[in-house]
Amino acid sequence: MIGKISGRLDYRGADHVLIDVRGVGYMVYVSDRTMAALPGPGEAVSLYTDLLVREDLLQLFGFPSLVEKEWHRLLMSVQGIGAKASMSILGTLGADGVSRAIALGDWNAVKAAPGVGPKTGQRVVLELKDKAPSVMAMGGTLPAAMGDEPAEVIEGEAKAPPKPAAPAPSASAQAEALSALGNLGYAPGEAAGAVAEAAGNDPSADTSALIRAALKLLAPKG
Fold first, then answer.
1. What backbone torsions phi and psi does residue 18 show, to the nearest 5 degrees?
2. Residues in domain Holliday junction DNA helicase RuvA C-terminal (predicted)?
3. What percent of the chain has pLDDT over 70?
4. Helix 118-128 vs helix 66-76: angle between axes, to the nearest 10 degrees?
């Protein structure tokens, strides 16, 4: 299994890139959002990858973070969601957007992805809502693909090391806030929903601000 590829970007296609790794070219399919964030041809690039194996097909899909790769894996487990639909959802919302949409039960956000209808959006939220807290918690502890921490790496020939990809502003804060609310006795699902809503209202909020905002959202209405 190829878990991560680091090398030199050879060219960009409509939905894929070719990464040169010591003279071997790997075709990696990426979302529109990931494509827009990649460097130009000839520059160093690093992506976490997931290998799709079928009887007549092998395809590599690339992601800037392990959180996004995990969402791809979970999305693919939902009936009616294949690789194309998963990449469409991630390309439209990004990993943080998917986390928020599923934690909040916002299937309208999911169905906004091209090729995803209302019924499929509802199914995604219903089947994955209980898994949102654990994936959100990953955000504060995992490196981006262009960080220094190794995974299953195929080293490329690029002379200059790639610059670390900037993490989402509130990924770590969300994970810490989620943990704090869990310690206060809140159920994972309701804590994830409150943290997601608070982060959506103020993406730059730090941990303390997220906790305060989430507690207000969780307070009994009376």
1. -110, 120
2. 173-219
3. 85
4. 110
